[in-house]
Specification:
By secondary structure, this protein is an alpha+beta fold. Helices cover 23% and strands 49% of the residues. The protein has 3 helices and 7 strands, in the order ββββαβββαα. A hairpin with a 4-residue loop joins β1 and β2. The longest helix is centred in the last third of the chain and has 14 residues. 16% of the residues are buried.
Length: 141
């Protein structure tokens, strides 16, 4: 049985003071961590950022605005082009402001990736090995 899903998308990054520029987004899902999707953003072989996203939040962000912390998602459309707008707030700067970036991904591609993750672990069937985790923590202490 398949336990991992991966895809690479060409997305557009809009950082402060710039227009949109193309970068790669490598999305990964592992049944061993069933609530999370890993998003690694890269350009010219360099990792720009890596985020762990809540799978349900990613799904909901395709339909409506979600998020209130460091990650905010919402659908965005320009004519027939449907995108997922992902806003990321990073580390604090010396002046007290925070790094800020916005990524636009083609919504149908993100939805297709999520459908594949749902074949691996259907929504509502996620399980987290709490007993094993607690045993590991207690053994280390």
């Amino acid at each position: 049985m398949k336990s991992f899903v991966h895809t690479t998308l060409l997305v557009e990054l809009r950082a402060e003071g710039t227009g949109r520029c193309p970068v790669f987004a490598h999305l990964g899902y592992d049944a061993a961590d069933p609530f999370a999707v890993t998003a690694v953003f890269g350009h010219d072989g360099h990792v720009l950022a890596c985020w762990r996203l809540d799978r349900e939040m990613l799904r909901d962000g395709l339909l409506r605005p979600v998020g209130a912390g460091d990650v905010r998602l919402r659908p965005a459309s320009t004519g027939a082009w449907h995108e997922l707008r992902m806003e990321f707030l990073g580390l604090a700067r010396p002046d007290g402001s925070r790094h800020h970036a916005v990524v636009f991904a083609w919504a149908p591609a993100v939805a297709a990736f999520l459908r594949e993750t749902h074949r691996v672990v259907p929504p509502g069937r996620e399980r987290f090995p709490v007993d094993e985790l607690l045993a590991e923590i207690l053994a280390a202490g």
